[in-house]
Design a protein that fits this description.
Layout (H helix, E strand, L loop, with lengths): L1 E5 L4 H12 L3 E6 L14 E4 L5 H10 L3 E6 L6 H6 L1 H21 L4 E7 L22 H20 L2 E7 L1 E3 L17 H9 L6 E4 L11 E6 H16 L5 E5 L4 E3 H12 L5 E4 L8 E2 L4 H7 L8 H14 L11
Parallel strand pairs: 1-2, 1-4, 2-3, 4-5, 5-6, 6-10, 7-9, 8-12, 9-13
Antiparallel strand pairs: 9-11
Helix pairs in contact: 1-7, 2-4, 4-5, 6-8, 6-10, 8-10
Bound molecules: nicotinamide-adenine-dinucleotide.
Nicotinamide-adenine-dinucleotide binds next to helix 1, helix 4, strand 5 and strand 7.
Family: Belongs to the NAD(P)-dependent epimerase/dehydratase family.
Cofactor: NAD(+)
Protein name: UDP-glucose 4-epimerase
Length: about 325
């Protein structure tokens, strides 16, 4: 049986492909490499380069991969400010791509999908920690495109029996412990890799946006989960569906909030670098605090994250950064 990973050349997808292979699964990857890296894909996975909008391409892949037990779907755009400027790009790639994929799954009789959703589907939280049953009212087109995808899968489940698990991630960070794969986004918009760019001397300093939030030190508080722990949750979710359980949605986070200043301090300790930083005004649309209630994933999926210390998460990202200062470019990729 084969697991097809869409977006398997991206940051989270490549770590999930790697974990699947380590655990003995047969894996095929679909990716158009728009933000992903061919060199990030474990060589034991079969690789198909193409776009999930391309129905003829998907048919070709699913005609070759005839024994698919499920798909894991990471293929999407995910930069919030870009989605505000160009919402149709997001609805087209994310939501539109999902429709083509589900039609192909329906026609090739593939009945399980694990889907990368996001905390951005909740919008400004009404309570902390955020529960799966809380209202989903996105405040940007990226979150809205992902919420639409959750709804489309729900109706496809009712009509065609395609079972799904929607995994709503909070902040994802870190890299495989041996430093062989890691995060390489262009542009980089996530806090930890940006801090590490400062530590490596690629940026002059860090800007901390907003120091007057109602939090412990006035800076934004976020919940960080290690990418390998996140990858493992996808495999548990697939096994959950294979065991005959019904469709479901789970938050994936560490349930512990760290302020931006705490992350900065942890990064200074983890890297031994001074990491200059300055205070800057708030950015529009940044919620004060985002922390997941992730007890449901722990209880129902049996998820046990291995990394509970944010400094250890940062150390793995720093190891990747030091061994690959130019990311996958170090392997000759443009
Ligand atoms: N990184 C985070 O902190 C975070 C948080 C919440 C949710 N997510 C979600 O997780 C998923 C993966 O995130 P990531 O950080 O690994 O992103 P990424 O950009 O590194 O990976 C996405 C992958 O999908 C591929 N792709 C995009 N559109 C495609 C298409 N139309 N056809 C084929 N391939 C396509 C890209 O080339 C890339 O390899 C995204 O869907 C994102 O919304 C990420």
């Amino acid at each position: 049986m084969t697991v097809v990973v869409l977006g398997g050349a991206g940051y989270i997808g490549s770590h999930t492909v790697d974990r699947l292979i380590e655990k003995g699964y047969d894996v095929a990857v679909i990716d158009n490499l728009i933000t992903g890296h061919r060199a990030a894909v474990n060589p034991k996975a079969r690789f198909y380069q193409g776009d999930i909008h391309d129905r003829a391409f998907l048919d070709e892949v699913f005609n070759k991969e005839t024994n698919v037990e499920g798909v894991i779907h990471f293929a999407a755009f995910s930069i919030v400010p870009e989605s505000m400027k160009d919402p149709l790009k997001y609805f087209d790639n994310n939501t539109g791509g999902m429709i083509t994929l589900l039609k192909a799954m329906r026609d090739h009789d593939i009945k399980r999908i694990i889907f990368s959703s996001t905390a951005a589907t909740y919008g400004e939280p009404k309570q902390i920690p955020i529960k799966e049953t809380d209202p989903q009212i996105p405040t940007n087109p990226y979150g809205e495109s992902k919420l639409c995808m959750e709804k489309i899968i729900h109706w496809s489940d009712l009509a065609y029996g395609i079972k799904f698990v929607a995994l709503r991630y909070f902040n994802v960070a870190g890299a495989k412990a041996d430093g062989s794969i890691g995060e390489d986004h262009h542009p980089e918009t996530h806090l930890i890799p940006i801090i590490l760019q400062v530590a490596a001397g690629e940026r002059t300093g860090l800007k901390i946006f907003g120091t007057d939030y109602p939090t412990k030190d006035g800076t934004n508080v976020r919940d960080y989960v290690h990418v390998v722990d996140l990858a493992d949750a996808h495999i548990l979710a697939l096994e959950y569906l294979k065991a005959g359980n019904d469709s479901n949605a789970f938050n994936l986070g560490s349930s512990t909030g760290f302020s931006n200043k705490e992350i900065l301090e942890a990064a200074r300790e983890a890297t031994g670098q001074p990491i200059p930083a300055e205070d800057a005004p708030r950015r529009a649309g940044d919620p004060s605090t985002l922390i997941a209630a992730s007890d449901k994933a722990r209880k129902v999926l049996g998820w046990k994250p291995q990394y509970d210390d944010v400094k250890e998460i940062i150390k793995t990202a720093w190891n990747w950064k030091q061994t690959h200062p130019k990311g996958y470019n170090d392997r000759g990729e443009a």
